[in-house]
Amino acid sequence: MAIETHVASLGMLATPGALALGAGAVLAVSGLGGGIVIALIMAVLLTIGGLAFASVAVREGKVARRRRVRTGAEGLVGRIGVVQSWGEPSGRVRVDGALWHARRSLADDEAGDLHAGDAIVVERLSGLTLAVRRADEWELAP
User: Fold this and answer.
1) Which of 5, 61, 67, 102 has the most Cβ atoms closer than 10 angstroms to its Cβ?
2) Residues 96 and 52 placed together within one structural domain of the fold
3) Which residues, other chains included, contact 130 with Cβ-Cβ below 8 Å and sequence gap of 6+?
4) Which domain holds residue 133?
5) pTM over 0.85
6) Beta strands 129-134 and 119-126: pairing type?
7) Mean pLDDT, 10 residues at a time, over the chain (142 residues)?
8) Are the C-beta atoms of 14 and 54 separated by less than 8 Å?
């Protein structure tokens, strides 16, 4: 059941684990000489607790899958930056405080020259080079 918190299996690991925990409780209590009523009560309580754990793990896993990526190459796409220096067809841009080598995005070839201080948007990342385009007015509004 503890693996469910680290592997997003949508309950396929925790649910059988909760059921096995209940079955183990029946075997342990009856093996120690306890009555069947006590064994069943323990099994039901442990199974309900395990299934509650599984449901929380599944719900949190689904929420985490819907979140937007904030780091890595995927996290840079869509970020706004500023041109530091530009000489066609490439230049240097500052995005989130870091200086990157950049080139024009293929979709931005007809948009005119880029100059120092122009706002850009990161389209994609290829190695350590950003593909950028000129930012539209609506992208710069807070």
Assistant:
1) 102
2) no
3) 76, 81, 93, 95, 100, 101, 102, 103, 122, 123, 124
4) 72-140
5) no
6) antiparallel
7) 70 81 89 86 90 82 78 82 89 92 78 85 90 86 74
8) yes
